Automatic annotation (TrEMBL):
Segments forming domain Rhodanese: 64-116
Pfam families to which the protein is assigned, alphabetical: Rhodanese
InterPro entries: Rhodanese-like_dom, Rhodanese-like_dom_sf
Lineage, highest ranks first: Bacteria, Pseudomonadati, Verrucomicrobiota, Verrucomicrobiia, Verrucomicrobiales
Superkingdom in the source lineage: Bacteria
Gene3D superfamilies in UniProt: Rhodanese-like domain
Protein name in the entry: Rhodanese domain-containing protein
Length: 178
């Protein structure tokens, strides 16, 4: 009797699995999603990204050049707390052709990016992310995917208290008013 119950339970489980997801192993078409395109972008970025990572001094120098866009792709709430002075904010989930075109005038504009994982000792405004999911990686790949060809990334991990990069935001104002 016990063996029959186990057999029917397994059979029922198999039947329910097939009913819940009848297309296991089949490609589900969606003309607006391309994993192959994403993979292609990642491989293309891997070839150029390392040569586009800048030291703190190089990043500061690039920030002073005319026409450069300093892009912060973190959430608006984190941006409002603390960001590099002069940065514009467009959160990564809000990236689309028109939104990017509003803040980056041309595809060959020099764009500087930074993320949470570039700064330490500011755990609220710069929350650490898993190293393999750092926002810079996604931002770089996404900008490349939208056709932006002059993207540069802040490379090192810097302490917010000792970096030469200038900050702005509510968190900075709080500390200066104490």
């Amino acid at each position: 009797m016990k063996a029959h119950l186990i057999f029917f339970s397994c059979l029922l489980g198999l039947t329910m699995t097939q009913a819940e997801n009848p297309v296991i192993g089949q490609k589900i078409p969606n003309r607006l999603i391309s994993y192959e395109g994403f993979e292609k972008n990642v491989h293309e970025v891997a070839k150029i990204r390392e040569s586009r990572r800048l030291t703190e001094a190089q990043f500061l120098q690039k920030m002073s050049e005319p026409g450069v866009i300093l892009l912060d792709a973190r959430s608006a709430s984190k941006f409002q707390l603390r960001h590099i002075h002069g940065a514009v904010n467009l959160s990564l989930p809000d990236f689309h052709e028109a939104a990017l075109a509003k803040i980056i005038p041309a595809k060959n504009t020099v764009v500087l990016i930074y993320c949470n994982n570039n700064f330490e000792n500011s755990p609220v405004s710069f929350t650490d992310k898993s190293i393999s999911t750092a926002l810079n990686l996604h931002t770089f790949v996404s900008l490349q995917g939208y056709g932006y060809t002059n993207v540069f990334e802040l490379g090192p991990l810097l302490d917010v208290h000792t970096t030469r990069l200038p900050f702005a935001g509510a968190e900075v104002k709080e500390k200066s008013s104490r």
